[in-house]
Design goal:
The structure holds two protein chains of two kinds.
Chain A: E1 2-12, E2 15-23, E3 34-38, E4 49-52, E5 55-58, E6 64-72, H1 76-82, E7 89-96, H2 102-106, E8 110-116, H3 120-132, E9 144-149, H4 158-163, E10 167-172, E11 179-180, H5 183-190, E12 196-201, H6 204-216, E13 221-224, E14 240-243, E15 246-249, E16 256-258
Parallel strand pairs in A: 8-9, 8-12, 9-10, 10-11, 12-13
Antiparallel strand pairs in A: 1-2, 1-7, 2-6, 3-4, 3-7, 5-6, 13-16, 14-15
Helix pairs in contact in A: 5-6
Chain B: E1 9-11, E2 14-16, E3 20-22, E4 44-46, E5 63-66, E6 69-72, H1 80-88, E7 98-103, H2 108-119, E8 126-130, H3 147-158, E9 165-168, H4 176-186, E10 190-193, E11 197-200, E12 202-203, E13 208-209, E14 215-219, H5 224-237, E15 242-244, H6 251-260, E16 262-267, H7 270-273, H8 277-291
Helix pairs in contact in B: 2-3, 3-4, 4-5, 5-6, 6-8
The chains are: A alpha/beta, B alpha/beta.
Amino acid sequence: MKVDILNNVFIKECRLLLELSVPASFKSALPGQFIHVRVEDSYDPILRRPFSIHDVCESRKKNMLTLRVLYEVVGKGTQLLSQKKPLSGLDCLGPLGHGFDMDKIAQAKKVYLVAGGMGVAPLFFLAKKLTENRTPGTGNPGPIVLIGVKTKNDILREKEFKDLGCEVHVATEDGSKGFKGRVTDLLKSLLPSALSNICACGPKPMLAALSVIAHKYNVPAQISLEEFMGCGLGACLGCVIRTTSGYKRICHDGPVFDSSEIIWKE
Amino acid sequence: MTMKPNLKVNIGSLKLKNPVMVASGTFGYGNEFKDYVDPSKLGAIITKTITRHRREGNRPPRLAETAAGMLNSIGLQNNGLDDFIKNKLKDYKGLKTKLIVSVGGETNDEYVEIVKTLSSYEEVSAFELNISCPNIEYKDKIIAQDSGLTLRLVKDVRRATPLPLIVKLSPNVCDITRIARAAQEGGADAISLINTILGMAIDVDKRKPVLGNITGGLSGPAIKPIALRMVWQVHNIVSLPVIGMGGIMNARDAVEFIIAGASAVAIGTANFVNPGASLEVLEGISSYLADKNFKDVNELIGSLNVN
């Protein structure tokens, strides 16, 4: 499907916010789902690039929605994508994959959204859905967002999370802002907490550490994994992760998994 | 008014409504692409390779992107024959296209058992023997790299089924025609080629292989010239129909293979880039034939003019 680029702007160093005009069918997109983007019509790079959905919001255009993608230039594909100009078309598949299980989260008294670096991308969409669905006066305080980065200049979307009404905590490895240390240590300092629930996205080592903590404190955790993908549709078995029931496809069985089913050691 | 060109082709006794298939391992079991491709429009679907027993597959990472291509080392992950019969086969009822089951194994007996068992299911139209997957070892050898082993295996499987038998060859050999001849002598009905070309990629920052399996199979447009050359060579040597594959991204690529001697083509890596690629190739072949005033795709097969 070809969609129009509305905007594609650098927001901080090599991170960009991409806005796409997508059909109304994206209304059903769930936090944790992704779009699979072909950045060039040529064959180098040949494969699509998966990007988690950062936000879906109303559009002034009839029967259309605006989909946002938050991404970082890390290689050839994202480099080419960063050069795309508004009004040009982009070949996208989606929404794809299985997102966060909202019903599981709904039962929790306290929800921690734990982001490592670019991991804020899908968690913002999740925070938005969680705050949208909140019924006032039920005592539900809304999600608590933990953002972990190397240094304070890497912090993304802090204000946007606060605007949703989320309580935001920041951890920097160099101590330039907030808690000094890793976001998983920050999380540990907030646990144990009865009837809580964790949703996380970030680099694999962070998610592995988080899984250990979730297990220790007996808190259910859903984690969103990132991986280089082939088809994105579950056919090629290229993007797998080892789980307690064998290799599972990140694109189709995930990208969101229960942390307890992942076997981190290869 | 111009007539629509005939697209029907025969692969031995296997009659296809058109010459476009999807290659093994690139289309799952068909269901995965349901939002993008109506399988009833395709000439055939070739399944992901089935083995006798469940195979977990190789450790990740399993994919690496290369210039105009990709490496994969999936390692024939599949749930085995029994699961295929129990959980997958019923999905093919009323598919309205031909189902070709790709079969892999570590011993001849495994191939024979799978083929014998599946021959009694009406959903199955033909078999493609995957003797060329570079990830699987057969007594430290790859069957497809040894004409003697190829001959023995094809003979054994031939006795096990009346259904059309397609043998898929590996390009990782010195002389592809020797292996093709062995497959013909063993009683194959058709030859598929090529499977992926063995390759590797290195992460220079970590000084580690990109793939968990170290090496993997290269596919995509990068390998098309090699595939085309091999299809042409084999078409000239054996009398069997050839199914051409290897880096076909669009209709013009497919037409090249048909001109080189392929009676049908299979779309592989292109399915990942564009899930609707197979149907676009089919339409493109049809328009090519109409433009060039061919009434029948069969007139185009092996029509290369080398003079």
